[in-house]
Write a structure and sequence with these properties.
mainly alpha, 6 helices, about 0% strand, extended
């Protein structure tokens, strides 16, 4: 009688169970700040992305210390204003999700929902525009020209990529 094969199977199954148990324990102890695999990319560590963009802007445009401080302050102020509207946007997204997951699409309900939140959309767009304007005006004329050239190249690259 060959006893080695059943022992190998038992060891393999035991090892697999141990790995599953340990991984579930590890995930239970993970902090709520950890990003899961199912988290959308745009929601993952937005601060890191903003920091990278700021570092790139500092390097490419050779921003002075004073300019850096001004831009950081402008962005912080915009973030505070944006956070005020965040709850409204979450509520809109929840209501939109309900409409989109309905059996039949109700065009009038969606239009009414969108219309009800139009002031919030306008406020968010206004905050973004004012922030871009304020940051742009912190730059010197030479930096502004360079920035516009970079953004123009970026748009062309995007258009080529999209076909």
């Amino acid at each position: 009688m060959n006893i080695i094969q059943p022992v190998k199977n038992l060891v393999s199954v035991s090892t697999l169970c141990a790995v599953i148990v340990l991984s579930s324990i590890a995930s239970a102890y993970a902090s709520s700040d950890d990003i899961g695999f199912d988290t959308p990319k745009h929601m993952q560590k937005g601060g890191d992305r903003a920091e990278k963009m700021m570092n790139r802007m500092m390097k490419v445009l050779s921003l002075s210390e004073q300019q850096q401080v001004q831009i950081v302050a402008i962005k912080a102020q915009a973030r505070e204003k944006h956070n005020v509207l965040r709850d409204s946007m979450k509520k809109f997204k929840e209501e939109e999700k309900t409409l989109l997951q309905a059996q039949a699409f109700d065009e009038q309900a969606y239009t009414a929902l969108h219309g009800a939140y139009q002031p919030v959309f306008v406020q968010m767009a206004l905050i973004r525009a004012k922030t871009k304007h304020a940051v742009f005006n912190v730059l010197t004329t030479a930096q502004q020209e360079k920035w516009l050239r970079i953004m123009g190249n970026r748009k062309e690259k995007f258009k080529k990529k999209r076909g």
